[in-house]
# Entry
Amino acid sequence: MSIKKLFDKNRPSAVLVSTNLEEEVVKNAPELESADNVREQMERINRFIPQVDFSNPANFARYGSAEQYYEDALSRIQREFPYDGSEEEITRFHNESNYVDKYIFDSKYPRTTGYAIFSANGWGSLKGISSDGYGAPVTSEYIEFKGGPHTASGGMATGKLHQQFTGSNY
# Structure
């Protein structure tokens, strides 16, 4: 093919602008929630992610404290992640995150609430069966809570509840 045919002006050319693309995607993909979500998804797809191991601070922390990078990432995730947000808001959060934030969220941030395994070594033998039909094992197991349920509603050990938190209702 000659150069002249390559740049022949008689050939029709259709240019698809980005707004048309978004409308087409929204129209043809009903599972996407909005055009804003399409924009955020396109930004996510076009984003450059470096092949850096962020688990080792020597790979990325040149200026400043690596500990501060990690603390800031955790703080940002806790403060700004839209836990009950739309898909567009969640994608925007990821698009606005820096690489350390993304690493912490994807690999270190807890995603579940946890679980407990009772009698992992078996039920063992019983001390006896109570009158209500339940048995008591020879070795008891306990769950320790740190934080969470507090006894402040029942009163404070050092005084009345309203005296401990003066000015809290202003």
Observations:
- Residues 66-80 form the longest helix (15 residues).
